[in-house]
């Protein structure tokens, strides 16, 4: 059994009964990033803390409230390219 304290991210993921893969998909990040947030440490940079950025924490709160998040409607957004 791990002696590491449970991170807030891991607690959120477990409360929502999300696997690492499901959390990654729901948040639009890689599974590797979820592993880092679960551990609270960036595995690539030993000793560096790893916490979700504000935008991800907001999305986590939305998902925790049971709200659905629709994919961005790329085709509905007008895109201006350059100046005319």
Describe the structure.
Helix 2 packs across helix 3. The chain contains four helices and no strands. The model has no long low-confidence stretch (mean pLDDT 83). 11% of the residues are buried. The protein has 84 residues and is an all-alpha fold. It has one domain: 434 Repressor (Amino-terminal Domain) (Orthogonal Bundle), CATH 1.10.260. The radius of gyration is 16 Å and the shape is globular.
Radius of gyration: 16 Å
pLDDT average, as an integer? 83
Q: What is the CA-CA span between the terminal residues?
A: 63 Å
The CATH topology corresponds to: 434 Repressor (Amino-terminal Domain)
Q: According to CATH, what is the class?
A: Mainly Alpha
Low-confidence stretches: none
Shape estimate: globular
Number of domains: 1
Q: In percent, how helical is the residue content?
A: 40-55%
CATH architecture descriptor: Orthogonal Bundle
Tally of separate helices = 4
Derived structural class: mainly alpha
Strand residue percentage: under 5%
**Could you describe the largest sheet, including whether it forms a barrel?**
none
SS elements, strand count: 0
Order of helices and strands: HHHH
């Amino acid at each position: 059994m791990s002696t590491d304290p449970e991170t807030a991210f891991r607690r959120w993921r477990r409360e929502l009964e999300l696997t690492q893969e499901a959390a990654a998909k729901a948040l639009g990040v890689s599974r590797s990033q979820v592993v880092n947030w679960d551990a609270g440490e960036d595995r690539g940079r030993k000793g560096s803390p790893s916490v979700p950025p504000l935008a991800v924490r907001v999305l986590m709160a939305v998902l925790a409230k049971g709200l659905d998040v629709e994919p961005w409607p790329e085709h509905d957004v007008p895109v201006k390219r350059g100046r005319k």
